[in-house]
Amino acid sequence: MPIRTATARWQGNLTEGSGTIKTGKGGIQGNYSFKSRFEEGEGTNPEELIGAAHSGCFSMAFSKALSDEGFTPNSVETVAKVHMDKTDAGFSVTRIDLETVGDVPGIDDAAFQKIAVAAKEGCPISRLLSPGAEITLSAKLA
Predict the structure, then answer these.
(1) Mean pLDDT of all residues in the chain?
(2) What CATH number should be reported for the domain holding residue 117?
(3) Is 52 helix (H, G, I), strand (E, B) or coil?
(4) In terms of domains, do 56 and 119 share one?
(5) How far apart are CA 32 and CA 75, in angstroms?
(6) Is 1 contained in some domain?
(7) N or C: less crowded end of the chain, CB within 10 Å?
(8) Same domain, 34 and 50
């Protein structure tokens, strides 16, 4: 398997400085700052990028799991809400809420839910993040 890379450059102090984040092949690139991370400023932040990685990984894992069970999805759309809180150890990602909607012909809700939970458990990014953060799942059929 290839090794994936990303880079970040920060200039200046914590509160007044600024930075850029870029994935290895340049598919995602953005500016970030103290305000975009800890307030509501313009730009991205590491937590949004974790959310993007998690929602993308889960959507693919869920699509595969559905197909493996004989249900080819038309689409799977997932939002990852990353919660960062101040803890005794400092700022920490404490919870990620995955909210997914699947357009999956021929499946009932019980099977959809069972496959969604299994996909969450098997998603590589979920496995990476779950020891340190609670991961919740809300799965709905379109």
Answers:
(1) 96
(2) 3.30.300.20
(3) helix
(4) yes
(5) 31
(6) no
(7) N
(8) no
Predicted pLDDT at 26:
81
Mapped to the 3 state alphabet, what secondary structure does 65-119 carry? Answer: HHHHCCCCCCEEEEEEEEEEEEECCEEEEEEEEEEEEEECCCCCHHHHHHHHHHH
Please name which of 128, 121, 112 lies closest in space to residue 53, comparing C-alpha atoms.
128
Q: Does residue 53 sit in the same domain as residue 92?
A: yes
Q: Domain count for the chain, please give it.
A: 2
Regarding whether 119 and 79 lie in a shared domain, the answer is yes
Task: Extract the tokens encoding 8.
Answer: 């970040």
pLDDT, tens digit, for every residue of 113-129? Answer: 999 999 999 999 999 99
Strands 134-141, 90-103: parallel, antiparallel or unpaired by DSSP? parallel
Tens digit of each residue's pLDDT (9 = 90 or more) over 63-106: 999 999 999 999 999 999 999 999 999 999 999 999 999 999 99
- Residue ranges making up the domain that contains 25: 6-38
**Are the C-beta atoms of residues 98 and 58 closer than 8 Å to each other?**
yes
Angle at 70 between CA 67 and CA 72, to 5 degrees: 50
